[in-house]
UniProtKB/TrEMBL annotation:
It is an enzyme of class 3 (hydrolase). Monomer. The lineage of its organism: Bacteria, Pseudomonadati, Pseudomonadota, Betaproteobacteria, Burkholderiales. Its cofactor is Mg(2+). It comes from Undibacterium cyanobacteriorum. Its EC number is 3.6.1.-. This is Phosphatase NudJ.
């Protein structure tokens, strides 16, 4: 039997606010096998959910905020090789921008140490702690105004179990 290669599909949320005259991004600090890392609220696509549903769920789990995706910033592919184990994973990331509304009083997902607001300069200054090289690339594309409408993505109802007409 031959091995079929498949990338690991992930989603990421790019969320901004204006605070004391500067633009800040909602980021998370997480404990990984390779140490403490900085990332956008991000995670894996789960079975039976659309990309849209995944980014809403991941943002809630990792930041305790409700997220409303407004646009697709981009799709990205990157190979990660763990410096500790040598394990290789290719990630296919879908980055969305949008807004957050309510913040809930709930525990953050396992491994998430905290959610925090950071300026672009602060994020750029700690690039060695980024979970992936895609963290900064997604922000750069967002700041460059790169956006695609959400209706470019279609999820057939067979994925989510919704009734079809």
């Amino acid at each position: 039997m031959s091995h079929v290669w498949k990338p690991s599909v992930t989603v990421a949320a790019i969320i901004t606010r204006q605070h004391q005259g500067r633009q800040e991004f909602l980021m998370i600090e997480e404990q990984t096998k390779d140490g403490i890392r900085i990332n956008q609220a991000a995670g894996h696509l789960d079975p039976n959910e659309s990309l849209h549903q995944a980014v809403i769920r991941e943002t809630l789990e990792e930041t305790a905020h409700d997220f409303v995706p407004e646009a697709l910033v981009g799709t990205y592919m990157s190979k990660f090789v763990s410096p500790n184990s040598g394990e290789e994973v290719t990630y296919l990331r879908f980055a969305f921008c949008g807004t957050v509304s309510a913040q809930h009083d709930r525990p953050l997902d396992t491994g998430i140490l905290r959610a925090m607001w950071m300026s672009y300069e602060e994020i750029r200054a700690c690039h060695e702690r980024h979970r992936s090289p895609l963290v900064l690339r997604c922000l750069d594309d967002y700041l460059a105004g790169q956006r695609a409408p959400l209706d470019l993505m279609y999820t057939h109802p067979s994925v989510t179990g919704q009734a079809t007409n």
